[in-house]
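Researcher: I'm preparing a figure for a lab meeting and need a structural model of a single chain. I don't have an experimental structure, so a prediction will have to do for now. The sequence is pasted below. Please return the structure as tokens so I can convert it later.
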Amino acid sequence: MAPQDDPRSPTPSGLPGARGARPKRNAPLLLLALGLVTITVLLFTNRGETSYETTLSELEGDITAGFVDELVIIGGNRIEGKYRGDAHGRGRSTFVVPYTGGGQNNPLTPERQQAMERAMREFKGAFSSKPDASGLGTQLLSLIPWILLLIFMWYLVSRQMRSMGGGGVMQFGRSKARMHLKERSNVTFADVAGIEEAREEVQEIVAFLKNPGQFKRIGARIPRGVILMGPPGCGKTLMAKAIAGEADVPFFSVSGSDFVEMFVGVGASRVRDLFRQARESAPCIVFLDEIDAVGRRRGTGLGGGHDEREQTLNQLLVEMDGIDSQKGVIIMAATNRPDVLDCALVRPGRFDRQVVVDQPDLTGREEILKVHVRGVALDRNVDLRVLASRTPGFTGADLANVVNEAALLAARRERDAVTMAELEEAIDRTVAGLERKSRVMSEKDKERVAVHEMGHALVALTAPTADPVHRVSIIPRGAAALGMTMQRPTEDRYLLTEPELKDRLAVLLGGRTAEEALFDMVVSTGAQNDLERATEIARAMVTEYGMSPKIGPLSFGHDGFRGAEGRLLYPGAAPELSDELASVVDEEIARLINEAHDRATDVLTRHRGMLDQLSQILIVTEVIDGPDLKGYFDGSKPIPSREELRSLTRSNPDGSAAPASSGPDIVIEPRQL
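Model: Understood. Here is the structure written out token by token.
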């Protein structure tokens, strides 16, 4: 992105709302000022020496006794000097005595004056005289250190207030919006891929700002506001950066959290200041990122009834009503929580257009990969179309992470280019986490893991509508996955039928069923995640999808209590059901789970020998790819004998032999619907 500039200072292009360059760090200046204050204070203090006032007669005796090291006669008014270190046991100190004298203790008679002059002639120390500089000037000079110290303290306090309030106490309510100029942005629409519809919508806005006459001739009115909605990582903020790079107008960018402060009224003041700058800089674009931080629905308790947030939202609504889109001020916003936004904010007239930035499809993922592999050395055998087909449900951020992880792996293995092996490994890392080769299990537990994962795989191979098995592994990954059976769909799916959901239930129950078959009905805790996901699917089939014959086509949803990602906003919330209907729901869920268990039992009973043989191969090789597994199952690839199994070993992509690993069982279906 372009450097962040101040919208209240002139820019090289003459735009009134752009920020100037940030001031440089002035830490050396602060240190210099502190040093000067310290030196001045030391120079104008007595440095810890004690000063005494004495009489002329005592001074005469001290001079005769040799106790005085230094004498200074000041303008005939007084005498100042310094005692030696052993004088009167006082140590080295200063003294003051009036020279003109007067009074009983210090009479100035001719005899005393002559005696004093003789004593001074006999004085062997340093002697000097200077005019009297006492008075107003001396007093002011003595105040200089304290004045400098007060100035320094005031500077520190004012600097702290500027850092808290964004420019000083009087500017605490100023907007924190950052302006981006076209010549300072290196992101354009060419860097946005996989979301063609959303890109076309925002391109229309940029075209209106560049040439408004084309739209005004036929009476078209550009939308006053556009809100980008979609899951995290799909490119909403990237789209805003591209608009900043393409539009030849000021582009204000601010986060919703920048408006909310602990003081009531500050957020509303910042909203007013932001729209004032926008009107002065029209035509321009104002982008509000993560608008749900300030635009949550009022009166529901979500996010807490914070007065500051609600006042900020009210001011935002008022300002948006006062904006005339014909003047060229376009309001854009982005959020991944459209379900919690206030209905007054997203109504037509404020945000007229709602653009969904969703997960890319197969073609979109391929285009995104082409963008992210720019500058990456790829092997000639890398097929981005194949990679796109193996990453259903991945967002643009996921794909960018896959390419970067593959490049890091290739550099670690000292390769000249990134190959398909590194890209496949990067996909596995993104889906299931890093390999944990240090976790080693006993042979008994390792055998149980292999049996469990092979049970999933065999049921998936026989299920008519199940996704193809991509890989079976007993290598631990991530925090909890000690084994995985990866299924990858061959195409993007947006709907699931009842037979497909039942096949998924059977595949999920295949691991536990395999343990029951080969270990005499003794099961382990490895099926915990499988049972949890199976129960969730069965409950959704009964209460949400209307797939229960007893209940019929009824849906008992959660009344809007689900978030943008489908998770409950209130984990304890449940649909309101009568006791009799809740009992029926439980019976139907149990029926679906038991039917899936019976299907898995039937499959594994018919293929008991295949389950035992393939489990032994998996124990030795630790990984079986989908084509090899299918070849073993349909007989097109011979199953190795026990002697041949002893010679098998799993190899790393760099050619070195891999140590044996192990872990508890879990089925991982990447990005299932």
